[in-house]
Amino acid sequence: MLVLTRKKGQSLVIGRDIRVVVVEVTGDFVRLGIEAPPEVAVYREEIYRTVQEENRAATTSAKILKEIKGQVKRS
């Protein structure tokens, strides 16, 4: 992991077109602004993990449903 020190108003650039700006620092909280192209999805990590888990569950459910339908057709 790369660790950088930034102050309010300072930023960092990821690749050519993603910019992360420190908007505010209050106690233990840091507010970040993110400038990225519309095709780049930006999520908080906990939301991203939830979406990934739901996608895995949906994929698993779809596979199971397909298998059940195949078994029913064979019967």
UniProtKB/TrEMBL annotation:
Determine the domain of life of the protein's source: Bacteria
As for subcellular location, the record says: Cytoplasm
User: Which terms are listed as keywords in the entry?
Assistant: Bacterial flagellum biogenesis, Cytoplasm, Repressor, RNA-binding, Translation regulation
Main localisation, per the record?
cytoplasm
Statement: the UniProt record of this protein carries the keyword Repressor:
yes
Q: How does it assemble?
A: Homodimer; the beta-strands of each monomer intercalate to form a hydrophobic core, while the alpha-helices form wings that extend away from the core.
Instruction: Spell out the NCBIfam families in the cross-references.
Output: csrA, PRK01712.1
Which family does the record assign? Belongs to the CsrA/RsmA family.
Alphabetical list of HAMAP family matching this protein: CsrA
Give the protein's function.
Answer: A translational regulator that binds mRNA to regulate translation initiation and/or mRNA stability. Usually binds in the 5'-UTR at or near the Shine-Dalgarno sequence preventing ribosome-binding, thus repressing translation. Its main target seems to be the major flagellin gene, while its function is anatagonized by FliW.
Supply the name of the protein.
Translational regulator CsrA
Gene field: csrA
